[in-house]
Amino acid sequence: MNGKSLLQKLTEKRVSTWNILFKKPWPYWFGGVLLAVVNIIYFAISGEIWSITSGFARLGAWIISLFGVNVETWEAWQYYQYNLPWLDNNSWSNLGIIIGALIAILLAGQFKLKKIKNKKQIITVLIGGWLMGYGARIAIGCNIGGLYTALASLALNGWLYLPFIILGIYFGSKVLIKLINY
Amino acid sequence: MDKYLDCTGEPCPLPLIKTEKEMNKLKIGDKLFIELDHTCSMTNIPEWARKKNYEVETEEVDFGEWQITITKTN
Amino acid sequence: MKRQEFRQKSNWQLIFALIIIIFSIYIYLYLNNSVEINLATSWAFGLIVGFILQRSRICFTAALRDPFLFGLTKLSRALILSTIIITIGFAYIQYQQQLGGLPIEGKFVPLGWHIPIGAFIFGLGAAVSGGCASGTLIRLGEGYKLQWIVIVGFIAGSVHGSYDASFWYQLIRSQKSTHLPQLLGWGNALALQIIFLLLLYLLSYWWEKHKF
């Protein structure tokens, strides 16, 4: 016995298992493998394929339809069907992702409402968000539906998407570095 | 001269860009303290520093807030 | 000292997590029993994906950016590995669909200039707002106030893009199928894609060695 009782040792072991599972970040490759497996199961049991931004388009279209805009006749819906947000798979999976991440960070005990540093940031990210939404609708897909699950479906459009999203991110990062002028 | 960097509220990749620039200015043996609250930078800054063979220490200072200490060893 | 004290107070986060988990299960059961099973599946899928992405810190923007900005490719390689696995799984399901005489499902978009232009604009936005589509959702869950603004812009931009669709979709060049197996045959398509992904993996590995 070197100073520690069996009970102490057991508690320590429990704490370290908890830390590995819920506190320390998982290795990237482990997350990547799980992500692929979960997506395959989802496709197999529901016939749905993961995508994000078409859900945003439906949600936004529904919101402006409340103000009397006739959204259902838009040509866009020929490429991705119009649904009411609460009857839309993408809206539910989007909400799920937010809540899933919240559960994960709470279990890690690292949740905190994180502040915004300055006003310039607000303008930058508002424009950035707008560009993302607009771009994703033009290309009919974001980094998930246009790239990840497109490549998964052996679709040529995924390969066309890849070099240009990389270019966009590269130039965007250069702009951001210029903006902060550090 | 040790240097303190406050990166709270800054999204990826800004903390790592600043870290890279500051580390280049430091002399061997100096330390850089980075305070941040971005989970993504919390993984890629230590990864980058270890690749550079610098000494890295991380400490959680508050809920979801960390301090990374990098010692320039080469 | 603040630094030691906060650790003992983190129990409320656990309790909060448990309440949300119970609530999420309740929503799942409600959707499953009274609305539509597929919506319940999507909800559960979202929860699991959000959990995995937060836990493993996977960020698609970083994977596509860090190799070029910093020479870090660990995350990119993990996502290439992920793409190889998902390709095999999806190909198997699609093949079964074809054998069963069902329409083959997948994310097929007719080719044209709208894809490069849209992808480039999306990339620009993702870089300046600190996260792509999945990253934005994860960070909303993690409590970043900045992402509340991103999501407002994101949804507004999506509607704007859908509204302008009739203009942009004039750029569509061909309505032909983009499904590689229909163009090249199953064996060739699958082999080509996986070999190409493996090459990308090796290239990233070599790139990181070269950079450090």
Automatic annotation (TrEMBL), chain A:
GO cellular component term of the entry, any: plasma membrane
UniProt cross-references to Pfam families, sorted A to Z: Sulf_transp
Superkingdom classification of source: Bacteria
InterPro entries: Sulf_transp_TsuA/YedE
Transmembrane segments: 26-45, 52-71, 91-111, 123-146, 158-177
Localization per Swiss-Prot or TrEMBL: Cell inner membrane
Bilayer topology term: Multi-pass membrane protein
Keywords: Cell inner membrane, Cell membrane, Membrane, Transmembrane, Transmembrane helix, Transport
Family according to the record: Belongs to the TsuA/YedE (TC 9.B.102) family.
Name used for this protein in its record: YeeE/YedE family protein
From TrEMBL, chain B:
Gene3D superfamilies xref list: TusA-like domain (3.30.110.40)
Residue ranges of domain UPF0033 in the record: 5-29
Domain of life: Bacteria
Similarity remark: Belongs to the sulfur carrier protein TusA family.
PANTHER family in UniProt: SULFUR CARRIER PROTEIN YEDF-RELATED (PTHR33279)
Protein name: Sulfurtransferase TusA family protein
TrEMBL record, chain C:
A Pfam match: Sulf_transp
Transmembrane segments: 12-31, 37-54, 75-93, 113-134, 146-163, 183-207
Superkingdom of origin: Bacteria
Keywords assigned by UniProt, alphabetized: Membrane, Transmembrane, Transmembrane helix
UniProt-listed InterPro entries: Sulf_transp_TsuA/YedE
Protein name per Swiss-Prot or TrEMBL: YeeE/YedE family protein
Organism expressing this protein natively: Halanaerobium polyolivorans
